Amino acid sequence: MDRSELLVHPVRLRIVHAMSGGRTLTTAQLCARLPDVSKASVYRHVGLLADAGVLEVEGEQRVRGAVERRYRLRRERAVIDAERAASATPEDHRRIFAVAMTTLIAEFNAYLERGGADPVADAVGYRQHAIWLSPGERDELIDGLRRAIVAQLGNAPGPERRPYLLSPILFPIEEPPAEPPGESAPGK
After folding, report:
1. In 56, 57, 101, 136, which residue has its Cα 20 to 30 A from 73's Cα atom?
2. What contacts 112, CB < 8 A, 6 or more positions away?
3. Would the pTM of this model clear 0.70, i.e. be above it?
4. HSE (side-chain half, CA atoms, 13 Å) at 30
5. CATH among 3.30.1360.70, 3.40.50.720, 1.10.10.10, 3.50.50.60 for 3-124
6. Are the C-beta atoms of residues 89 and 77 closer than 8 Å to each other?
7. What count of Cα atoms within 13 Å lies in the side-chain half-sphere of residue 179?
8. Alpha-carbon distances, residue 92 vs 83, 85, 88, 95, 118 (angstroms)
9. Across the beta sheet with 55-63, what order do the strands follow?
10. Is-contact 78 54, C-beta < 8 A?
11. If DSSP codes are grouped into helix, strand and coil, which group holds residue 61?
């Protein structure tokens, strides 16, 4: 299975999220983190991710006669590369976006179902802003966001830290404005 096809699945994407931060988890621990997903489904998707090298076995131990494996995410393999993204059709993008939104909704519902969920205290945000940007301003915004996010990606779990799901989404919402009558671009 193509890696992009492998990652474009709501349960597998949630497993990747749960494994972030250098965590090592057993399939049973993943089941506890995804209580809305059947155990059989979690085991099947962990197997697919492991077979594809997205998850690797960090260790094994015998538990009540069965072998229990601890998995670690290979973050460099849990991405869709730029070449594949560039070759995606509009229908591919539509499907990938739908999976991302389905995953986001499932993660948010799981958060709300946990005891003690407090969106205000947890600074939960789901704001949308319509902003006007030139191509250069758009690229500058993306670069600044990327730098801010990448600086945090290496954070390991710690007593003061908890995992957050950050899902930046950016796309144009209408055609660019037409040139006003009588004006032309420089050099025309």
Report:
1. 101
2. 119
3. yes
4. 33
5. 1.10.10.10
6. no
7. 7
8. 14, 9, 5, 5, 36
9. 24-26, 66-73, 55-63
10. yes
11. strand
166 token code pair: 């950050």
**Degrees, nearest 5: CA angle 57-161-29:** 35
Radius of gyration (C-alpha) of the chain in whole angstroms: 21
**DSSP 8-state symbol, 76:** G
What tens-digit pLDDT sequence spans the chain (188 residues)? Answer: 777 788 889 999 999 999 988 889 999 999 999 999 999 999 999 999 999 999 999 998 888 888 899 999 998 888 888 888 889 999 999 998 999 999 999 999 989 988 889 999 999 999 999 999 999 999 999 999 999 999 998 888 889 998 899 999 999 988 877 776 665 555 54
Six token digits for residue 37: 């997903």
Specify whether the CB–CB gap between 3 and 80 falls below 8 A: yes
With 0-12 / 13-18 / 19 or more C-beta atoms within 10 angstroms meaning exposed / middle / buried, residue 110 is middle
Amino acid type, 47: G
